[in-house]
Amino acid sequence: MKTSQGIHVDLICMANNQVPLGIETPETNFLRMPHGKFGVRIVTSRETEVTVHLGDKAVLSAKVEKGKALLTQSADGKAFEFTACGEQPVASSDETKAATTADANHGFVAVSVRFADETVVHGPQPKPDIAETICFQMNPPGSKHNACVASNLHRIIPPEGVSNSGCSCCR
To answer: Domain total for the chain?
Structure first.
């Protein structure tokens, strides 16, 4: 998904290193994502501040340099993982306490991005950019994802080059 500032934000399935299939609506991007590890890919033309929320919890705030960046771990070093409701992420052998069901994120990811402030030596200072938030709802393949698509069919934003009539030749 591309923000109004031109920053591209995608979720990547780490099992196959691909962007999962999905639909975009005005509020949320519904993705058909298998359970497991995922990453947040940022493609930006300038240094960008990024905040990643899993569920209702901010797990990472970072600055990424110009170009491509793939964020795969929270601030405390845990991999981003999409788990089923009631499941626990796999605990590593060096962890002394078991993971709790509160660690399960149930697939909702919000990524806030904004260009980092720049200092201009000779000239007017640019106004700070407003952060834009892109929301993703990961759903496992099967009936849950299909139900989300069906219930949001009338709100789908067609990809660039595709008209509301369904194809580029029918404009």
So the answer is: 1
